[in-house]
Every structure is written in structure tokens, then in C-alpha cells.
């Protein structure tokens, strides 16, 4: 695999293995291992399919075109406005979740400054400034640091599994859902666990419009997280019983709560510390990929309205709103991911299907087409629309609330 293709695949994997993965134990504690794995595989197939639709779309535009440009090509100015707005809201929501989660983890390693709230806010600022700097420098710097962090994260993940897997209980793995409807309630949050689609324009530009390289990057880059997620669920569901885990998370529904649960149930401070370190690395690599996508989206938007903005200005526009969210909602990790999943369902499913539907009529002889035809498009669309309305059903009390 060529260097850029490998780097792009690792950006996909690094972006994916992040907040969504860390939220899985928090949101699936009452679902059970078997049902959780089934949900994972289903959503992987769905989101891999939708990502490949973007590959199909990029065959007819310049390599540096943003999603807004693609939408405008098929749905005019209205398409650009809607797609750009949804993309930016989604990226801001998920980046806010990552800054909130990052500040939660980093604050555990910092001495208390005045009080816990102030320490958390300072941790959020440090987290954003340090890792946001790589985005401002450029995609090459993100690729370089991501390779280092991703490799380290894999070793940390392997170490966590090494510690947790011997502790698993078959009885825990065989537990049935406390409430079957939780499987549906958790779907928008699990949905974001394969959410790298906002980075596709940046990757396509980086790969200079090479369709084959982009397709390989997506397939390899999403297969790695799927395997990691299944192992992660095996470890967490096997070690943590539903009842004990839910009781701990009710007290602290954050990533620190996850580490506390691992420490308390296994009686091992080493396991708790290892979970914290892995969580931090996972958040950073995911933060980098999502922030890169938001940075590029804002740049594409400003160019469209003929506004020249330097990279520092774009950096401020990218990172100040998520930092403010982390300031005022320090425990908003799960909440932000829920809203992100809702926006992401539209952006990653509804939008590409709508564009590909027109694309195939205008360009019937494209060299690359995603398999499945109209049946696959309609099926994916129905699932995507359903995921969009899940939060509304939860708010109306028709579906149970997940932890956090």
C-alpha cells in the first residue's frame, strides 16, 4: 500500500476509533454483548456503503471540491446551503464532545487548580491548543502525528485488552438487554463510531482524486475499527456486569466514570489507568480527523463567499465554539454525541444517497459504482431517516434514555 494511501487509511481509522468507541460501554451497559455486536456490524455495513457513495461522487468533480460543491452540482444553491449547514453543525457537535471528553480525561492527570470545574476548563484549553495546532499547520502534520499516536494507541489498546480479557465472565457476556428498546436508543451514538465522513473531502484532496486509493483507504480504515470495537465490547461487557456498571455510571456518566468502573469492578488501579491512557489517545486521534474536516469545511464555505481567511483565523473559528461547549457542559460528552449522530445520519446517509441518485442518471457509464443498485440506496435511506428521528422519540418518552 502506497504511503499516502496507508496514511489516509490510518486517518480514517484514527478518526473512527475515538469518541464513539469510548461511548460504547457507557451507552450499551444495559444492552448486552451479543446485541451490541449485531448493532456494530449493521452500522459498519451501512456507513461503509455510504462512504463509498462519496467515492462514486468524486469521480465527476475536482479533487479539492468540498461536500458543499458536490451538493450544489446536483441541487443548486439550496443543496449547498443545507449540506454545508448540516456538516458544520455535525462537526461542531462531535468536536465539542471530543473536547469535553478530552478535558475530562486530561483533568484527571492535572493537579486541582482552585476547584474541579476550573481544572476541567484549563484541561479543555490545553487539550485544544496543543492538538489544534497540528490542524492549523496542515494535513501533512496531521498525517505525521496521527501515525505516531495511532501506533501508540494500538499498543495501549492491546495492553488494555491484555489486562481485561483474563477478567471476563461468560455469564456477563450472555446477559440479555435490560430493555430491548435501548438497542434503538443507542443507535445514534453508536452511529458516530464509524463517523469519519467529514474527513473524506480532505482525504480526496490529499490523494489527488485517486478513486482506487480513496476506496482502499475507506475499506481498510473502517475494517480496523470494526475489529477493535468487537474486542473492546468483549472486554468491557465481559468484565463489567450490567447492574454494577449502570450503578457506577449513574454517579459519573463520563469517560472518567468508565475508568472508575473498570478500577472498582476489577480492583486494579493499573487497569483504570490503562483505560484512561487509551481513552486519551483515542480521543486525540479522533479529534484530529474531525477537526481537520471542520477546518476544511469552513475554508470551503468562506472561499465560496469570497472571504479570504488565514489559517489562524480558521483555527479560531474551528476551536473556540467547542471549547465554550466544554466550559459550560463539562459532562456533555454523551449529549453532544447524540446530537452529532442525528446530524451525521443526514450528512452521511441521506445526502450522499440523494446525490448519487441524480449522479447515476446523469453519468450512467461511470467507471466505479457502489454495488446494490436502487434497492441498496432505498434500504440505506430508510435506516438513515429512522436514526435521525430516534432522538425525537426519546424526547417524547417513546424510547428509553441511554446513560448520560
TrEMBL record:
Subcellular location: Cell inner membrane
Membrane-topology annotation of the record: Multi-pass membrane protein
Entry keyword Electron transport: no
Principal location listed in the UniProt entry: membrane
One GO term of the biological process aspect: amino acid transmembrane transport
Sections of the chain in a coiled coil: none
Record field: transmembrane: 39-58, 78-99, 119-137, 144-165, 177-196, 216-235, 277-298, 310-330, 336-356, 376-394
InterPro entries assigned to the protein according to its UniProt record, in alphabetical order: Amino_acid_transport_2, Trp/try_permease_CS, Trp_tyr_transpt
GO molecular function: aromatic amino acid transmembrane transporter activity
GO CC aspect terms: plasma membrane
Keywords: Amino-acid transport, Cell inner membrane, Cell membrane, Membrane, Transmembrane, Transmembrane helix, Transport
Protein family membership: Belongs to the amino acid/polyamine transporter 2 family. Mtr/TnaB/TyrP permease subfamily.
Main function: Involved in transporting aromatic amino acids across the cytoplasmic membrane.
Name this protein carries in UniProt: Aromatic amino acid permease
Amino acid at each position: 500500500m502506497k504511503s499516502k494511501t496507508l496514511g489516509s487509511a490510518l486517518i480514517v481509522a484514527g478518526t473512527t476509533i475515538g469518541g464513539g468507541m469510548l461511548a460504547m460501554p457507557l451507552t450499551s451497559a444495559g444492552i448486552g454483548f451479543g446485541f451490541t455486536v449485531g448493532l456494530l456490524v449493521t452500522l459498519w455495513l451501512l456507513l461503509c456503503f455510504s462512504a463509498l457513495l462519496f467515492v462514486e461522487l468524486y469521480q465527476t468533480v475536482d479533487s479539492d471540491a468540498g461536500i458543499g460543491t458536490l451538493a450544489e452540482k446536483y441541487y443548486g444553491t439550496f443543496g449547498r446551503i443545507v449540506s454545508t449547514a448540516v456538516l458544520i453543525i455535525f462537526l461542531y457537535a462531535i468536536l465539542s464532545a471530543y473536547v469535553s471528553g478530552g478535558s475530562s480525561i486530561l483533568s484527571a492527570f492535572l493537579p486541582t487548580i482552585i476547584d474541579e470545574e476550573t481544572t476541567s476548563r484549563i484541561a479543555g484549553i490545553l487539550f485544544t491548543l496543543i492538538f489544534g495546532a497540528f490542524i492549523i499547520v496542515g494535513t501533512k502534520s496531521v498525517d505525521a502525528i496521527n501515525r505516531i499516536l495511532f501506533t501508540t494507541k494500538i499498543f495501549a489498546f492491546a495492553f488494555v485488552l491484555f489486562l481485561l480479557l483474563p477478567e471476563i465472565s461468560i455469564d456477563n457476556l450472555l446477559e440479555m438487554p435490560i430493555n430491548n428498546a435501548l438497542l434503538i436508543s443507542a443507535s445514534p451514538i453508536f452511529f458516530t463510531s464509524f463517523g469519519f465522513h467529514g474527513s473524506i473531502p480532505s482525504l480526496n484532496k490529499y490523494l489527488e482524486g485517486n478513486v482506487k486509493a480513496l476506496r482502499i483507504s475507506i475499506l481498510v480504515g473502517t475494517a480496523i475499527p470494526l475489529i477493535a470495537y468487537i474486542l473492546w465490547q468483549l472486554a468491557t461487557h465481559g468484565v463489567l456486569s450490567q447492574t454494577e456498571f449502570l450503578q457506577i455510571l449513574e454517579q459519573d456518566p463520563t469517560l472518567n466514570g468508565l475508568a472508575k468502573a473498570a478500577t472498582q469492578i476489577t480492583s486494579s488501579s493499573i487497569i483504570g489507568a490503562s483505560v484512561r491512557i487509551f481513552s486519551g489517545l483515542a480521543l486525540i486521534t479522533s479529534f484530529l480527523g474531525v477537526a481537520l474536516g471542520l477546518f476544511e469545511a469552513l475554508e470551503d464555505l468562506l472561499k465560496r463567499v469570497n472571504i479570504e481567511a488565514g489559517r489562524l483565523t480558521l483555527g479560531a473559528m474551528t476551536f473556540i465554539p467547542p471549547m465554550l461547549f466544554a466550559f459550560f457542559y463539562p459532562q456533555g460528552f454523551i449529549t453532544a454525541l447524540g446530537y452529532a449522530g442525528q446530524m451525521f445520519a443526514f450528512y452521511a446517509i441521506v445526502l450522499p444517497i440523494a446525490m448519487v441518485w441524480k449522479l447515476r442518471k446523469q453519468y450512467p457509464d461511470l467507471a466505479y459504482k457502489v454495488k446494490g443498485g436502487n434497492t441498496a440506496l432505498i434500504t440505506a435511506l430508510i435506516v438513515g431517516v429512522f436514526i435521525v428521528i430516534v432522538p425525537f422519540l426519546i424526547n417524547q418518552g417513546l424510547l428509553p434514555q441511554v446513560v448520560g
